[in-house]
Amino acid sequence: MEVVIVPDAKAGGELIAEAIAALVRRKPEALLGVATGSTPLPVYEALAGTVRGGGVDVSRARICQLDEYVGLPAGHPESYRSVVLREVVEPLGLGEDAFMGPDGTAADVQAACEAYDRALGEAGGVDLQLLGIGTDGHIGFNEPCSSLASRTRIKTLTQQTREDNARFFDSLEEVPHHVITQGIGTILEARHLVLLATGEGKADAVAQSVEGPVSALVPASALQLHPHATVVVDEAAASKLKLADYFRATYAAKPEWQGL
């Protein structure tokens, strides 16, 4: 696992955006997995700026969703489909035909999970999956004790996760109890995993995921099993890392051409 410590969220966003741009330059039809929430917004803002400035042509790129709430009506502003279209797809100048995600309104949600899992494979697999991390170490909505081999499926949100996400709704009562999420096994099939974490509140989860044992209690620790996983953290999120100085020195010595 590669760990990159950056000064702040903006620097992290710019670094990851350039990695995505470099991927699309090599592979114009790349399938990019995106995450929601406030943490990845600097990535999307920086990437959109690169596109507007002519630094990369993303017209053939495709966007796929990591997870989705179950039961929110189509078009609800906080459905993750709406969020991804608003924050990623539209700013990049792409149309909805470039987007794929699970159907959280399906009558048969389990069938929708299985269909989305198959669709990712049929699309050629995810080239780069952007991830956030929960304060309890979850990735996607794979809460603690999720199977490390899990596939796209329905999950029940913990009270802590619902409270964390309540800021996007008018009240906690409006936050759905269930979601569709790519499983950890599904996530690990992406060719490159990039996890971004910022803020002191994520420091414990980052330290456990990077330096602790691989454990279902800390789902993000599964990234240790991946051949190309990059963790980008600001100084606050890196504050509990015992090997922080080593990570700084290792990345500083990395050839510039190698990228993330």
Automatic annotation (TrEMBL):
The alphabetical list of record keywords is: Allosteric enzyme, Carbohydrate metabolism, Hydrolase
Q: Where's the Glucosamine/galactosamine-6-phosphate isomerase domain?
A: 10-225
- Matching SUPFAM superfamilies: NagB/RpiA/CoA transferase-like (SSF100950)
> Mind naming one GO cellular-component term on file for this protein?
cytoplasm
- The positions flagged as active site in the entry are D67 (proton acceptor), D136 (for ring-opening step), H138 (proton acceptor), E143 (for ring-opening step)
Coiled-coil region? none
UniProt-listed Enzyme Commission number(s): 3.5.99.6
User: Which residues does the UniProt site feature Part of the allosteric site point to?
Assistant: S146, R153, K155, T156
* One Pfam entry name: Glucosamine_iso
Name any Gene Ontology BP term.
carbohydrate metabolic process
Tell whether Hydrolase is among the UniProt keywords: yes
Q: Where is the signal peptide?
A: none
Activity: how regulated: Allosterically activated by N-acetylglucosamine 6-phosphate (GlcNAc6P).
Pathways involved: Amino-sugar metabolism; N-acetylneuraminate degradation; D-fructose 6-phosphate from N-acetylneuraminate: step 5/5
This entry's Gene Ontology molecular function terms read: glucosamine-6-phosphate deaminase activity; identical protein binding
Assigned protein family: Belongs to the glucosamine/galactosamine-6-phosphate isomerase family. NagB subfamily.
Please explain the role this protein plays, according to its UniProt record. Catalyzes the reversible isomerization-deamination of glucosamine 6-phosphate (GlcN6P) to form fructose 6-phosphate (Fru6P) and ammonium ion.
How is this protein named in the record? Glucosamine-6-phosphate deaminase
